[in-house]
Amino acid sequence: MAPSPEAPSAPASARPENLTDLFLSFTWMALQGFGGVLAVVQRELVEKKGWMTKEEFIEEWAVAQIMPGPNVVNLGITLGARYFGWRGALVALAGLLTCPLLVVLALALVYAQYAANPHVAGALRGMGAVAAGLIAATGLKLLPALHKNLMGVSLSTALGIAAFVAIAWLRLPLAWVLLGLGAIGCVAVYRRLER
Prior knowledge:
mainly alpha
């Protein structure tokens, strides 16, 4: 008797193998994140490790941004808790902070020696421009995920442009921009869900 064919099962989503994998992964991300970690975290979690889809990343990053504290720390705690509970949250936090803290302390000692050097000041300004470019590139890379967003591409784009104008040109406080534009986004999604 021939075995009955089984329906192909959906592939299991990738996840950290254990707490050590979680710690080392977040340590590696933190050590790469000079000037901002958005690009690094997106590449590692979505593209390389596959622990999150683009859509999940955008949603989780949005939540991490509105919570108090550094965005990547909030994301690490959330992701660690998702897979390993409170221990995962603590391990992800430790991975994000331990080695970078040691690096920052060492750099602070070196910077104290060379702070007055104009070449050092110029190099630091140049790193700021590179960090801005990384953030812009990551935003462009995540644009295709907006097609699955409940607000749609046009409203998402309009809110993004409005946020940029409000913060960069009008210099409005971030909290007010988040409250105002966030409320608009919430109402728009709520209305679409009611339909």
